[in-house]
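Bit of a strange request maybe. I'm writing a small parser for structure token strings and I need a real example to test against, not something I typed by hand. Could someone generate the tokens for this chain?
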Amino acid sequence: MVAAVLVALAGTALLNGPPPATARTAPESAAGPESAAGPESAAGPESATTRSLTPSGSTAPGSTAPDPTAPDPTAADPTAADPTAADPTAPDSTSADSTTPGSTTPGSTTPDSATPDSATPDLLAAPVHFAGKAFDTCEAPSLTVMKAWLASPYGAVGIYFGGRGRGCPVQKELTPSWVASAHAMGWRLLPLFVGSQAPCVDSLAKRKYAIGSTPVTQGTKEGGDAVRAAKALGIGTSSPLYLDIEAYQRGDTNCAATTLSFVRAWNREVRRLGYLPGFYSSADTGVRDMETQRRAGTKDLPEVMWFARWRGQPALLTESVLQPQAWTPHARIHQYSGNVTETYGGRTLAIDRNAMDAPVARVTAPARFAARVPVPLSFVASRRP
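Reply from user aminoacidic:
Good idea to test on real output. This should exercise your parser:
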């Protein structure tokens, strides 16, 4: 019932309208820097039912055709980073986007195959999509806060579920019970993995997590780590796992090449294990570089694009570095504002704001894991269409 309620909250206005009046918008950052919500600025195998997310112009995920451009997984990567390259900022269109023709109605979730998982777990289900507004914050809030925030315009939440580079690694609330309970309330989940970072990453705090000299081996290992961490929380196959690569220096070709090798290896492993590889980064660095590779026909690219461009208004389909057909349909998230504080139901959080039409987690944790956090019927009724 709560899922149906969330449908009513959102419409096209959620994607294109102004931020809630209770929020404070931070200064725009074209590079998508780490947010006050946390050090992250929040940013699987082939199945016939999951292939609609293939980036336009790329080879179908899971293809076994030889890739002459792919690095040898057994060889060390000789590329080295040049941390001195400049990072010019490119202007972006500030026009509000419109919903994709034929896309999911904003604020709605496609038929939810997420509860519970199939009795035959090796058979992959179709991805679950959500269109509407989402927020992310460094540490998963308590279930009490998540209940209070049902009064917000948001229907999905980013959770930092793994990776050595997380700014909030403890995540005391983030358990299988939390995942099952939040999902039972009607929240849709965006799992973010903050692993190794570009050798020329802008953030000084992230440089100790720089990708090493064997990015393919490292990316493959961390892709497996991501899948294991997701499974441990009850996040099932066909779910997206979003790799967070923070903003890095533009113009450093060696650094970009090392990062690309790592990301592609991570994608291959995540896809091989039955999940959808997503990608979060700054529009002007990681996202720009992925779009360049997409246009060149490079394989093993992300299936979902989550781009940070802080202009205060959603521009889901009008981001200047992405061609209109790139990562469509149902494969984009725009982080349009960060470092903001909002209060709903008497509970305050520091968050980043996002507009999305993209896959969300399929929650497979048994219903018995869900904690009892009752939602008053009067409150549910008030959110009906």
